[in-house]
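Quick entry between incubations.
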Amino acid sequence: MLRTPTNPRSTPTAAERSFRQFIRTFGLLERVMQPYFARFGISGAQWGVLRNLHRAEQEGQPGLRLTDLSRRMLIRPPSVTGIADRLEKVGLIVRRASATDGRSKHVALTEKGRQLVEQVLKVHPAQVARVMSALSIDEQEQLDRLLVRVGERLAVLADGIGD
Amino acid sequence: MLRTPTNPRSTPTAAERSFRQFIRTFGLLERVMQPYFARFGISGAQWGVLRNLHRAEQEGQPGLRLTDLSRRMLIRPPSVTGIADRLEKVGLIVRRASATDGRSKHVALTEKGRQLVEQVLKVHPAQVARVMSALSIDEQEQLDRLLVRVGERLAVLADGIGD
DNA sequence: CAGGAAAGCTTAGGACCCTAAATAAACAGA
DNA sequence: TCTGTTTATTTAGGGTCCTAAGCTTTCCTG
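Done. Structure below.
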């Protein structure tokens, strides 16, 4: 009844271990970030929208289409619709019809939204550092490079799905 | 209107880059794994339950409590309840009252569930390898070590949440 | 040997992600 | 120009995760 040498359970490969650890660590990250964002009354996904709108503003774009947000955040358009609905309901963003394209809607920060983003930005770098300071700068760069490589592979695999 | 040297946007730190890349890469992973599991009619979370039950069986445990699953999968008990509900509805697992503790319920694979797990296990290592083969074995081990360290830090941070 | 604390599970409600399909507008080629 | 395709958004429905709160059973301490 004890494990035998031929039992695959006894020798997980490096691929299996890193794969599992990746999923595990991400779960923990969500556990930490959710209460952090909750302090500001938002969720992680909502922060993603707000931050992207803020960046766009700083680059001279007064707003973004929902499709742009979808592409930047790597989520599907229906997911963006839902997040935008909730942010609009609490007055952090506004939806406006595009002047040039009757199909699309632009989404932009309200003054209230802008202020919230700036409030979060005051502490956000410290929060990110708090998490990543488990690693040295060199190791952070190493991790980044490894994840970029895995990400590129995943992008290829994700593409090949719609057969 | 152009970026100035003092604009934080111009110099993301290694911490910020690796943090962002981690979230980004995980999103891509889900995008790839979801359709993969869908081929078997299950979700990633459901696979997590089935695989844990299968492992428990191989170690001589005929079933697991919902709380055990919650701890192994790093998710809260109510989430396990939902997943178990759906797996039970399609006949892949069964819930049974514990003989020794009136509070808890044991969950176990049905024959149908066991067969599904074995079917998935036939191709799963290859799928994991397909993703992780973006890295050499050495790099996979490096990634694992880095993620373990970040995970340990996150576990500490997650603990300190319930002030 | 009570009565309160802790443990295990579930329900309720909110936010998120996805796919599939419905609109509506823009585009493009015959 | 007219029709067929593509693009942008939304709706509908399923599955996951969370917190808060309720119920039952067990544990433990006075």
